[in-house]
Structures are given as C-alpha cells and as structure tokens.
Amino acid sequence: MSLSSLAQQIHLWLLGHMSEQWTLVLEMIIAGILVISFFAVLGLVLVYMERKVSAWMQIRLGPNRVGPKGLLQSFADTLKLLIKEGLTPDGADKFLFNIAPIGAIMVSMLLMAPIPFAKDFQMWDINIGVLYVSAVSSLSVISILVAGWSSNNKYSLLGAMRSGAQIVSYELSAGMAIMTIVILSGSLSLTEIIQSQQNGWWLFKGHVPVIIAFVIYIIAVTAETNRAPFDMAEAESELTAGFHTEYSGMKFALFFLAEYVNVFIVCAIGAILFLGGWMPLHIGEWTAFNHIMDYIPSSIWFMGKTFGLIFLIMWFRWTFPRLRVDQLLKLEWNYLLPISMINVVLVTALAILGWYFK
Amino acid sequence: MFLINYIKEVAAAIGSLLKGMRRTGYYFTHHKEIITQQYPDNRDHLNLPERFKGEVVMPHNEANEHRCTGCTACELACPNGTIKVITKFDITPEGKKKKAIDKLVYHLELCTLCNLCIEACPSDAIKMAQTFEHSVFDRSQLTKILNNPDSKIMDGVE
Ligand code: SF4
Ligand code: SF4
To answer: Predicted ipTM?
Structure first.
C-alpha cells in the first residue's frame, strides 16, 4: 500500500464520521503531529548518521557503546539535553533570546509543507512551491541574527553577523541554480517539476549546464545551512560555537535540530529539482529495467535520493577545512555568482533551442 | 588571458577538492584502517605505536647499573622544571673525586611528555615508557626517583 492511498483512506474515513470542517481540523492536527514526530526521528537519525560518517572518514569508530552499534546514542543525548537547565544569561534580551530557537524550528517546519514525500503525498501542493521554499528558507537568517544579538556575547554577535553575510550572498547562487530548473521545466510547482522528469532526471537530460547548476546548488546550500566548510557562524575553534554559545538544554537542542532538518530540506529540494524527487530511475528504452525500478515505492526513491545528497554534504563537512571570511565571500562573488549567471544564460538558450533530451 | 587563468584556477580547485574527497571516501569504505583502540576492553593486548609517550624512565641492566652521568643536560632542557638532578661525588679507586647522581627526581605531574629531555641526554640514559595508567589518590606519589636505590653508573659511560 502506498502512502497516498493510506492518506486517502484516512481522509474518507474521517469524512464518513464527521462534517467537512472537523475533518479539515483533524487532518491538520494529524499532519502537525506527523511533522513533529518526523522532526524528532530525523534529528535522531541524522545525528547518528553524521557521527558514524565522520568517525569512519577520520578512521575512528564513532558511537559504539549505547545500544547495539551505538544506535541508542542519540536517544541518550536527547535525554541529556531534555533534563538540562535552559539557562538565560543575565545581560541577555530575555524575550528575543527565548524566541530565537522557536523561530529557527518554525522556519524548518514551514519548509516541510510543500515537499512531496512520495507520489501524490504532499501536505500543500502550491503552484509556486519553488518560490515559497526559497523565500521561507531565507527567514532562517533572522533567527540566527536574533539569537546572536540577544545573547549579549561578542562571539555570538560575530557569529551571527558572519552568518548574515554568508546566507545573504550564497542565496543568490542557490537561487540561480534553482532558476535553471525552473527555466527548463517551465513551472514553479514542485509537483510539475517532478512530472517533467518522468523520462529522465534533469541532471541527465540537461547536459553540462545542469550539472554545473547542480554543483553550484550543492555548494550554495552547504553554505546556507551553515555547515563546514562554511560553518563560519559556528566555528567552534574561533567563536566557541558562535550564535548558540549562550544556549543550553532544550533551546540549544532546537537550534541543533533546526540545522539538521534544514540539511534534510535542502537535500530534498535538490533531489526534487535535479534528481526527479520520487520518480524512479528510468533509462530510455530498457522496458524491463524500467519496470523493475517502478516496483520500488516512490517514498523509498525520494528518501534514497535525499539521503544520498545528505551523505554528500556530510562528506564535504568531514573532508574540507573551514574557509576564512574573505575566502568565503570571494568564492561566492568571484566564482559561484559569475559562473551561475553565465550558466543561467546558457540554460535559457538550451531551453529555447530545445537542445536538451526530451 | 584572464579568462584562461580563471578557468584553470577553478579546475585546479575542483581537482584538489576531489582528491581530498577520494581520501576520506577511501577511509569511509575501508574499516580495517580504523586506528581507534577499544581501551578498557583490550587492556591485556594493547597495541601502542612505537612513538607513544607515557612517562620518562631510566632503564637499568641486570647488575643494577644505569647510564646517567649526572650532567644535568635533561634538567636544563626541560621547559617546565620537571626533572631535578641531585648529584654527589664518588671516590674512584684511584682516589679521585667523580661526579655521579644521587637521585634523579622526576615530577610526573608537571611533565608534558615533550621528549626534550630525552633528546638532550648525551648518554641515552633516559627514555619514554609506554605506561599510561598514571592516576593515583595522592599527588606526592607522582614524584618519582628514576634511578634505583644503590644503582651505579655503567662502566664505560662518560
Ligand atoms: S618530557 Fe619534557 S616536560 Fe617531561 S621531563 Fe622531559 S623535558 Fe621535561
Ligand atoms: S639523564 Fe642524561 S641528561 Fe640527565 S643527567 Fe643523566 S646523563 Fe645527563
């Protein structure tokens, strides 16, 4: 049974038992609970994955004491964070200080809305999904700035300012990279973009320009989610964790969770735009092969692609050293932005002339 | 010209980044390279690298002889005053006075295991041991006398 038919059955069952308004309310509540529990599971899984990946890349073992193969390590850490005291420093702006982590997690929740997790399984199918995602994701810088400002700590403020400069500049090239796909598929709706990849993913159909756009997208979103090698906002060794230096307990955990959920979301968007979202892998005329691929559920395809990209971003983090602030801005303004501008022009020409595989 | 350099730079950057990723990718897939030791579990068959530095010791041979001449080079080399060489004067059979060590006091609690003393020693009298379970309940137990009681200097070491 697929996820969409399950959702359909729940919808019909609810409609059979109550009025339309109550169905809507109940469905909203169910979706909310699902999103929150998905967040929790995602946080646990990604933290464990990150620690294992980092350990293996650095010839270490990683967590291996709590539970079999250390699988319960992130549960133990969460428990620890839950029972820690959530300190608010004396000199801090109390209201802003406490509201910043909630803002961060809210932005991540909003971004979950338009993502199609499987075929016909999506919370909110809006016709401007791409625009919505890029607009809302830029709100995350506000919570970081607020956190840094209200902490009344120079490291926090420095981290927040760095992150502001970084997110604002890298959003440009991320936007350009997203635009190439919008140009090729001719739609801003995430569902339609996926539909346009029925006969092959854009990464394969679009020749070199789309590959360049994909690389630029991955670099830019790594910077946007503040992960190494672009983790200037946190920079443990320079800023003692930057904007969340003063946070502890659950408020720290919210920032931590928001970071990982954001990584998931940008990878999901990358998978949707370039790798066909939940579309199975189809190769031209190989009908038998295509049929086998169709048997794998669409949710598995989506998750597989997303986690593949997450692994790629983790691979970056544990391989490359952190950039300096000036190098960071130079990379964006001298390299990524000009290249992606030219790339957009190339893709436009490609789309007009129809020189991509159809 | 500018454009060629620009493209070259980008290509070189991508090349070197891929090189780094190939290395970490290799480690990721080759788990037998892992160097972490599961310490308390493998206490009986620890596999320490040769250059592991645990504490400074002075080896003695079966006749309870060491190679230390009492030259105090180690004391001078030590950046944080960990070693104190207390000398005495022995009377040789010919009736001459000869400098020798009475005690070589070593403060493990101050030592940073930097190896400078061992490099400074002209007669290879001290070396690093691989013991590392140093915790004790009383700080004074960390002050050690490296030469055995009644030990003598080896013949032929000047
Ligand atoms: S290892 Fe370094 S700190 Fe320790 S005794 Fe020798 S010189 Fe001093
Ligand atoms: S241990 Fe070596 S350097 Fe130190 S006093 Fe003895 S001979 Fe000299």
So the answer is: 0.70
